[in-house]
Amino acid sequence: MDKIPKIDRQREHQANERTFLAWLRTSIALIGFGFAIARFGIFLRQLNIALTQQEPPVNPLSNSENLGVALVIFGILVIALAAWRYNQVFWQIERADYRPNRLMVWIMTGVVIILGFLSIPLLLRRDQVPSHSPVLIQPQSRKLQRSTPNLNVKKGTITTIYKQIFLLFK
Length: 170
Fold this sequence. Notes:
By secondary structure, the chain is an all-alpha fold. The protein has helices at 6-52, 64-95, 102-124, 142-147, 158-169.
């Protein structure tokens, strides 16, 4: 245990901690990206419904919600693996028999590449949006009809679209 001078062992432990913290930041980024991708996909679908008044077709396998959930799960697995690896390296430093593990690097690289390839169809897919101006569906309730303001703006302008979206989510 005293084969390595104390100052060198301290530096190795600090490097191990920095490596763990880098993995922690990576996992937080993966979880954040996953959450953002999933929520933004839901937002875009709701915006499309508000503008076109029809439900767009959703592929049950390749959609942004599934990719987002996969990224969140992968981020959780990365932090668990990083904690395990930190502990393993800690004891290797203490025993003075550290051995790098390249397999973990290749596994992480492969998973990130696969998730990247799975996101390409989401980027290339273009939903068809009708070219006509959106029409607001009339509310069914009298209470809603009285609270709906009169839109004195030319149909098809951006202001009209924003007001219609606001009224749908009000």
